Amino acid sequence: MTGINNMNSRRERILLVDDDEDIKTIIKDRFEKLGYNVLTAGNGQDALRIIDMQDPDAVILDLQMPRMDGMEVIRRLKDNSQLPVIVLTAFGTIRKAVEAMKAGAFDFVTKPFSHDHLEMVIKKALDYRALQTNNLWLQGEIDAAFQGIIGESPKIREAMEMAQKVACTSSTVLLLGGSGTGKEMFSRSIHRWSDRAGKPFVVVNSVALRDELLESELFGHEKGAFTGAHALKRGKLEIADGGTVFFDEIGDLKPELQAKLLRVLQEHEFERVGGNRTIRVDIRTIAATNQNLYKKVQDGEFRDDLFYRLNVVAIQLPFLRERKEDIPTLARFFLTDACREMKRPDMEFSPEAMNHLMGYHWPGNIRELKNLIERAVVLADGKEINPNDLPLPPFNRNKQESSAIQSYHESVRQYQKEIIRRAVEQAGGNQSRAANLLNLQRTYLARLIRKLNIRDLVKGDN
To answer: What CATH architecture is 320-404?
Structure first.
């Protein structure tokens, strides 16, 4: 180990606590030659004061000292679990050393001790300290990356409240909403609010892989199950045991995989591809889609039994244009985040730029807003974002302008279609429930659907 610590950019600090001046001198000289910064104290009270002021990386502590003994020091340090304490104890008092370990000490060394052994124990303690620090840093990075749900508009608050309620259960959740409305963020929030938060959160994208690869990704495969299967592979369902699986774009799942997924939801078991051993899992399922699953069921493209298994608690996420009061908060959050990522100075929106954002229709929802702001941070000059830095697609402007000059009756007709569609989607395709949401009679809603020629909604009730 000699010479290792001379390579460190920061000299690691060791606090040596002993009332024997000869032992302190010997250990201090030895470890300073190895490149450590050695602090010393003659009693427990001085040791605690130095720990508060100097934040050492490890402590070598004698148990028998005046004024405050080593056991009391360990008890006072119980909340500082990252600080490893190595106890020095006489050979005849090993029982006290074991007691110190139970109270929180990292390790112990008996007197008289071997210098090589003490060096090895110190190295282990410092490695432990570094690992603890890195774990805390990593957790901080993860927490920072997890943005959470942003917004205070009534529609987003309603969706959040429902998500928080269902998070406390093991119920299957179906998230409905257009592309870019934040379905994955909601699913991660539900997981973090649940008692499964300490277990895996696994994402399955139903359209990202070919059918044969998706089956292997889901269920895993045995060695030799197919060409290229050179080793056993655990699937995502097996990895997620105890945690949450998020099926993104569930409406695109092929029929043969729908049947296998239904079995997992019903029986909590499956076999790997090429295997015959049944694997049981405890998973919570969250699915998301931007499609009308009820219509896909009616068209024979999605299993009705799987739909009902997924549609236990349905949460409708609003389009960004339906929660425009959240745009300033979202925009400023994305701006701060983009500046930090790109190492740019803090920037702000001009009033004209914010008006520009508020006046847009946002067909791409939150994802479009985030991407637009990232682009603005890359290209903008100075510290202020102006409308010219936020070019919006012209075809959307034209769409808005053309909709503004529609006849009154056509505008009302289009609005009726949109609000009825949303109600039926939120009700999971059940027209009776949709009528209750709209405060209409079921028969009147059915007449409206036929009158407005919304063909995909006229195929009955469930």
So the answer is: Orthogonal Bundle (1.10)
